[in-house]
Amino acid sequence: MGDPFPNPHATKAKTNSNRKIMFFAAGTGLVLLAGVLLFQAFNAKTGAAGEDKSAGSVRISGSQPSARTQPVAKVGNVVISEDELARECIALYGPEVLENVINRAIIEQACQKAGINVEQAEVHAEVEKIAKRFNLDTKTWYEMLQAERKMNPNQYRRNVIWPMLALRKLAGQRTKLTPEQVQKAFVRDYGPRVKARMIMMDNLSRAQKVWDDVKKHPAEFERYARDYSIEPNSRALGGAIQPIPQFSENESLWKAAFKLHEGEVSGIVQIGLSRYAILLCEGRTEPIVNSIEDVKTQLVDQLTEEQTQEAVARVFAKLKEQTRVDNYITGSTTGGVSQTSGTSFSKGQVNQAIPSPTQGLNGSNR
C-alpha cells in the first residue's frame, strides 16, 4: 500500500534503459493458483467464507461446472481433494481473481462483436518490443517476471499483453502529438524545478491560522511543518519535499510554486479535496538537459505510450459501463448502462483499465 498522502507533484516515470526494474502488477503464486482453479471449476458461494450453501455457479468460456474430486494431498488417512483446495482458494482470493476473469471476458465479447482478432504472433512481437525497451531479450524478460512476481510467460501473454493489444484495436485510433506537448514534457522531465518545503493541512480554518503565523515568522517554517503538517514523510523532515516540476500532475501546486522567489512563502493553495498546502521556496534546480533534441526520441516514445494507455483505459471503462456483470461472489451487479458518444470519463475511471505491461517500472530519481 502506498503512502496515505502521496507526493502531490509526482510525475510519470520516464522510459530508459538505465531503469531499476521493479514489478508490482502481478499477483502472488497463491493468487495464480486460485486463478487456475477458478478457470477449471468455479462454485460460487454466498455469505462468509466457510458456508456450504451454494448460490449458483459461473461458467467460464461456456463450460459447465463439474466436481473436481482428484486428490491433491493426503494427510494420514485424510484425502484433500482438488475441489476442497479450489473452495479454499476461492474463499481467500476469489474476488480478486474473478475480477481479472471478468475483465478478460468483457474484452473478449467486445472483440467478437467488433470482429477483432489478436494473433499469437502479435502477442510475441509485443513482448519482444517491451523487452528491447529495457535492452533485454525476451528470455531474460520472462525470467525476471518469473523470479520477481511468479508470473510465467503464458500468464503474462494471456493476462497482460493480450488484453492490452485487444483494447488498442478496440480503441481504433493512433496517437497524435503536438510540438507543444513534447515541449511541455521536456520542461516537466528535464527542466528546472522549484526546491520547496510544504505544510499540508486538511482544514482551511487551521491552515489560515498556521499561514498567519508563518507569514510573521518565515524563519520558523520548519518548526511549523513539524508541528502542524499532516503529511507524515515531509513533516519529519521539516516540510522538505521533492523539487516541484513544471507541468506536473498537480497544476495548482506547480503554478503556485513557480510564482515564488527564494525565501518567499506562498498563500494557501488547495491541491485536492480537503488538502491545503503552504509552500516555502528555497530556490530552483538546474536543468539536467539543455537541448530537447538530445532526448526528443525518448520523449516522443514516452508520450505516445501515455496517450495509448489513456485511450485504452477509456475504451475499457466504457465497456465496463456498458456490460452487465452479475458477480455471485461479491453479490454485486454492475454495468449495463448505455453510453452516448459524448460521454467523458474521470481519471478514476481511466485507472480501472488493464495495467500497462511495464506498470511499476521505476526510473532512477532525479
Give a short overview.
Helices cover 45% and strands 13% of the residues. By secondary structure, it is α+β, with helices and mostly antiparallel strands.
The profile of the biggest β sheet is:
4 strands, antiparallel
General shape: extended
Which residues form runs of ≥5 with pLDDT under 50?
1-63, 339-353, 360-366
Order of helices and strands: HEEEEHHHHHEHHHEHEEHEEH
Q: For the largest beta sheet, what order do the strands appear in spatially?
A: 6-5-8-7
Describe this structure in words.
By secondary structure, the chain is an alpha+beta fold. The protein has two domains: 29-175 and 298-350, no CATH class; 192-284, Chitinase A, domain 3, CATH 3.10.50.40. Helices cover 45% and strands 13% of the residues. The chain is built from twelve helices and ten strands. It has helices spanning 29-40, 82-114, 120-133, 138-149, 153-171, 179-190, 204-216, 221-228, 232-235, 251-257, 296-322, 347-350, and strands at 43-45, 54-57, 71-75, 78-81, 193-201, 244-245, 269-272, 275-284, 325-327, 332-334. A four-stranded antiparallel sheet has the order 6-5-8-7. The chain has a two-stranded antiparallel sheet with strand order 1-2. A hairpin with a 2-residue loop joins strand 7 and strand 8 (275-284). The radius of gyration is 25 Å and the shape is extended. The protein starts with 28 loop residues before the first helix and ends in a 16-residue tail after the last helix.
